[in-house]
Design goal:
By secondary structure, the protein is an alpha/beta fold. The chain has 15 helices and 8 strands. The protein is about 60% helix and about 10% strand. The strands form 2 sheets. Strands 6-7-5-4-3-8 form a 6-stranded mixed sheet. A two-stranded parallel sheet has the order 1-2. Strand 4 and strand 5 form a beta hairpin. Helix 1 crosses helix 6, helix 2 packs antiparallel against helix 3 and helix 5 runs parallel beside helix 7. It is elongated and about 130 Å long. Its EC number is 2.7.13.3.
């Protein structure tokens, strides 16, 4: 009795379990079919041509040419195969062949919609061939022309649609072939497996090409973003460097003001008490300004400088140091000719430093990108002493050799523009017809042109001021020649 009482209770429970598992499977199948149906009815970017974003004009036209070539080839061939080989009515053969080939033109912009038309036409064609006498011993349900057009369509579809859509198309292709299996004519050659396998291969190949193109586009976008960020970082670094250099220039003058103001009561006898307090206030204000500049400079200094505690203690260079800079460039293998004014100029410290840095960066670019090219550096002042012109012109390299830095981005020009803008000047750069390059900067010159005096601060070095050393003919090979500045030629004047 115990066994009898358990048996009726266990059997309903087991049946309910089977029904529950069967229900879950049916729900999963319905959900999968719903997803496939949604994918088949949701095209990606309809109306956008294949290769529409490619810059090459001929490559953009390639899908249209391929679609047109296959259409004009498959249309008459399909009519001939269906009417002559399979014995189909000419009108029906023409309609089916048109529906199976002409939508390939639509596949260039709307491949999923073209698939619906061609797939429906292929199914109708297979139904029309069922039981036809001409299908005996021939490929069925897909004739050869149908297979070729369908594979071309699969490639266009894979280049555009999502992977789930491609899976749905592939399963629909296989399901259609399986449903036509029992209806196959006698001694016909089954082609549904062939189409199922080849369509899967074409879909996989097209999807791989699509993903590769997408990865390349993302890589180009990242390269563009990285280039913009690198240029911005270079700009910030150059501004920081300019700020440090200006600190050294301004701090010198502020220190002089502080010392003069603090020592004035001791140097000038009989100074009123009000004047002493005024000079004390000036000294205190100068000290506060220096302290504030040092605090701001601490924010701008690079991490490398702060880590090694290696402040820049050397005085900032100027036009007087150009001969030494040119000598170093000559030792690097670049023949440079330096031309300085006959009478030395005394520009403001910021202008003096900017002129030196512009020449320095221009020569560095010659060494990096045009090694061995003859270069001419000219520093001139206008007759009224209002402007200073810095001109660096290099010719093409003597031999076609690879530059030391073939991947240069031209970020050195960013620093030049920042320095020119700092002093309210102008900069002109660009290539020359002979393959060289020109850098011309015009800087405001507020200092007066003073005559050269022996040993006076700011005077030119003896070797650069002597006529012998300034002559181009007397210059030794491989060394820079420093000579008085002749008038600019029309070409140089325009380029400056």
């Amino acid at each position: 009795m115990f066994k009898r009482s358990l048996t009726p209770e266990r059997e309903p429970a087991r049946g309910a379990g089977h029904e529950s598992a069967r229900g879950r499977a049916l729900r999963a199948a319905r959900q999968a079919l719903h997803v496939l149906a949604v994918e088949l009815g949701t095209p990606t970017d309809p109306g956008t041509p294949l290769f529409g974003t490619v810059q090459n004009r001929w490559l953009r036209r390639l899908p249209y040419l391929i679609a047109f070539a296959f259409t004009v080839t498959l249309l008459p061939t399909g009519i001939s195969v269906l009417s002559h080989d399979y014995g189909m009515n000419d009108g029906l053969a023409g309609a089916l062949a048109t529906a199976q080939s002409v939508p390939l033109l639509l596949a260039v912009t709307r491949p999923l919609q073209a698939w619906w038309v061609i797939f429906a036409a292929d199914v109708l064609g297979a139904i029309a061939l069922t039981g036809a006498d001409g299908a005996v011993g021939r490929p069925w349900p897909w004739p050869p022309t149908v297979i070729v057009g369908y594979l071309v369509l699969m490639l266009a579809l894979a280049l555009r649609e999502r992977n789930r859509t491609l899976v749905a198309v592939w399963l629909a292709t296989g399901a259609a072939g399986i449903l036509f299996g029992p209806l196959a004519p006698e001694r016909s050659i089954s082609t549904w497996v062939l189409l199922f396998v080849l369509s899967g291969v074409m879909l996989t190949l097209g999807a791989a090409l699509r993903e590769r193109g997408r990865a390349q586009r993302k890589l180009r976008e990242q390269e563009t973003i990285s280039e913009a960020e690198r240029a911005h970082r270079t700009l910030l670094e150059e501004r920081t460097r300019i700020a440090r250099e200006l600190h050294d220039v301004v701090a010198h003058h502020m220190s002089v003001i502080t010392v003069q103001a603090a020592s004035a009561p001791y140097r000038i006898e009989g100074m009123p008490e009000a004047a002493q307090e005024e000079f004390g206030a000036i000294a205190a204000t100068a000290r506060e300004s220096l302290a504030e500049m040092r605090r701001l400079l601490g924010v701008l200094r690079s991490e490398e400088t702060e880590r090694h505690h290696d402040p820049e203690k050397a005085p900032q260079p100027g036009i007087e140091q150009l001969p030494k800079l040119v000598e170093g460039t000559v030792r690097a293998g670049v023949p440079v000719e330096l031309t300085l004014p006959e009478e030395p100029v005394v520009p403001e410290p910021a202008v003096d430093l900017s002129a030196y840095r512009i020449v320095q960066e221009a020569l560095a670019n010659v060494v990096r990108h045009a090694p061995g090219a003859r270069t001419r550096v000219s520093v001139t002042a206008t007759a009224d002493g209002s402007r200073l012109t810095v001109l660096v012109v290099n010719s093409a390299p003597p031999a076609p050799s690879a530059p030391l830095e073939p991947g240069g981005t031209g970020h050195g020009l960013i620093g030049m523009r920042e320095r020119v803008r700092l002093v309210d000047g102008s900069l002109d750069t660009g290539p020359l017809p002979d393959g060289g390059f020109r850098v011309a900067a015009r800087l405001p010159l507020t200092g007066a042109v003073v005559p050269a005096t022996a040993g006076a601060p700011g005077s030119a070095p003896p070797d650069s001021a002597s006529p012998d050393s300034g002559s181009a003919d007397s210059a030794s090979p491989g060394s820079p020649s420093v000579r008085p500045d002749p008038p600019l030629s029309p070409k140089d004047s325009d380029s400056a």
